[in-house]
Design a protein that fits this description.
With 258 residues, this protein is of the alpha/beta class. It is built from 5 helices and 16 strands. It has a single domain, classed as Carbon-nitrogen hydrolase (Nitrilase/N-carbamoyl-D-aminoacid amidohydrolase), CATH 3.60.110.10. The chain is 21% helix and 30% strand. The strands form 4 sheets. Strands 5-4-3-2-1-14 form a 6-stranded mixed β-sheet. Bound molecules: acetamide.
């Protein structure tokens, strides 16, 4: 089953959401994709200094950003996964919205990173999957990649594609995500940003990786553009790495308990 997966690598201007959203849509307009992945906090920027500042950018999961993404999804007959600061009661979450023409769903980042911990609560949605044009898609956000349990949980729940909005600041994510793909035999699509914000630099290198761990596309450190790859998602149903070795059937979960 073919699915066209797109990643958008942007260079958001801090706190300039309307311009940042417009810039992403302009990059996406040049391509056709079934599933778009946009970076973590793609519209607001990332490096908040106070909770008040983060809260001023945050919105509810069914707020205006959600409506805008859903309208774009309906217009282009696609799904979009995009990171945003979410307000839920008194709490803020580092979340990603999955928007399709028919529905929206939110994933809240499980493993919040560094200074995010000052303002954002650890996610409580757990990992879920949704069918996009017949293909099972799961979501994790940036630093979640460092915990193999994130991708493994999604893969065990049937994800064939992991959408991975990111704002990578450490150097290991792009290479590490090849292993997340290989050890779970899933496609991964990491959408990162470039540039720097208040002295914090982001490494770009958005990419799409196949279930055998090979790069299907990788953008540069500073490039601002979108890239789309068409893949056969059925490949990710086959968990064999050798005729006699199936990564899921050969697991020994009883021996993994602490
Ligand atoms: C990160 O989780 N944004 C590094």
């Amino acid at each position: 089953m073919e699915i066209r997966i797109g990643v958008v690598q942007n260079s958001p201007k801090f706190l300039k959401a309307p311009a940042n959203i417009r810039a992403c849509f302009e990059l996406m307009d040049k391509h056709e994709a079934d599933l778009w992945v946009l970076p973590e906090f793609f519209a607001s920027g990332y490096n908040f200094k106070t909770k008040k500042e983060a809260a001023a950018c945050a919105e509810k999961a069914d707020g205006p950003l959600s409506k805008l993404l859903q309208a774009y999804a309906a217009q282009r007959d696609c799904a979009i996964v995009a990171g945003f600061p979410e307000k839920a009661g008194a709490k803020l979450y580092n979340s990603a919205l999955l928007a399709t023409p028919a529905k929206t769903r939110v994933y809240r980042k499980t493993h919040v990173f560094g200074g995010e911990k000052r303002f954002f609560s650890p996610g409580d949605t757990g990992f879920w999957t949704e069918k996009i044009k017949g293909v099972s898609v799961g979501v994790m956000i940036c630093f979640d990649w460092f915990f193999p349990e994130s991708a493994r949980t999604l893969a065990l729940k049937g994800a064939q594609v992991i959408a991975h909005p990111a704002n990578l600041v450490l150097p290991w994510g792009p290479e590490g995500m090849k292993i997340r793909s290989l050890e779970n035999r899933v496609f991964t699509a990491t959408a990162d940003r470039v540039g720097s914000e208040r002295g914090l630099g982001f490494i770009g290198q958005s990419q799409i990786v196949s279930p055998n761990g090979s790069l299907l596309t990788r953008l540069g450190h500073d490039e601002v553009r979108a890239a789309v790859v068409s893949v056969d998602a059925w490949t990710a149903r086959d968990k064999k790495v050798h005729p006699a070795c199936d990564l899921f059937e050969d697991r020994r979960p009883k021996l993994y308990a602490r």
